[in-house]
Design a protein that fits this description.
This protein is an alpha/beta fold and 218 residues long. The protein has eight helices and five strands, in the order βαβααβααβααβα. Bound molecules: thymidine-5'-diphosphate. The site of thymidine-5'-diphosphate has 15 residues, from helix 4.
Length: 218
């Protein structure tokens, strides 16, 4: 259900090291150069409380965090993000690009942590009052390639990133299943394509959505 016209809501999803933020930045500048107002944001985070929750759940050193607590922290951060940032921007008619949204919780906590994808989806739909993206761009990355990309230059891995490749493989399968379930709402691209090629494919998919008059996307 899409309840937020006149704006356009696009989520970028994928495993760690897929290159989501690069593609979100590429799309933002392409749309801005056409005179559109674009809001780029990310999860967990996007609000002051969300940034605090981000550091609680991602930084090492907070002791053991069990899977339910982890899922609820991500959902709490998302609730604030949806109501304080995303929905108001969509109501102002802006294009909202978010780096991760509900699918990340369904894949990481539902499948990765084995909490069950339906349960995790349900708490997140409740947390966001049903706010869904018009389009989700899924950058599909091989877990091993993703790990190589994100640790290039010795960057430290956060709590989730440092999980085993097998955990990341479950997440990849879950993302692909979500996309297969509702193909009309997804654009799935192999993350290893060159940056410019990916950017072009994404823009081509987004363009017709910009042309649709208010109310038609719902
Ligand atoms: P991200 O911000 O994409 O990582 P970075 O900016 O460090 O590249 O995401 C942080 C981590 O949080 C990532 O490993 C995925 C995980 N995550 C979840 O497990 N569940 C969620 O709901 C979200 C939004 C992220």
């Amino acid at each position: 259900m899409t309840t937020h016209n006149p704006g356009l809501f696009i989520a970028f999803e994928g495993g760690d090291g897929a290159g989501k933020s690069t593609q979100a930045a590429e799309l933002a500048s392409a749309l801005e150069s056409r005179g559109l107002k674009v809001l780029r944001t990310r999860e967990p985070g996007g609000t002051p409380i969300g940034e605090k929750l981000r550091s609680l759940v991602l930084d090492h050193g907070h002791g053991h965090i069990d899977a339910h607590t982890e899922a609820l922290i991500f959902a709490a951060s998302r609730a604030a993000h949806a109501s304080q940032v995303i929905r108001p921007a969509l109501e102002r008619g802006e294009v909202v690009l978010t780096d991760r949204y509900i699918d990340s919780s369904v894949a990481y906590q539902g499948a990765g942590r084995d909490l069950g994808t339906d349960a995790v989806r349900n708490i997140n739909e409740w947390a966001t009052s049903g706010l869904q993206p018009d389009l989700t761009v899924l950058l599909d990355v091989d877990p091993e390639v993703g790990r190589r990309r994100r640790t290039a230059g010795d960057a430290a891995e956060d709590r989730l990133e440092s999980e085993a490749d097998e955990f990341h493989a479950r997440i990849r399968t879950a993302f692909l299943a979500l996309a297969a379930d509702r193909p009309e709402r997804y654009l799935v691209l192999p993350a290893h394509l060159p940056v410019e090629k990916l950017a072009l494919r994404i823009l081509e998919r987004v363009e017709p959505l910009l042309a649709l008059p208010r109310g038609v996307r719902a």
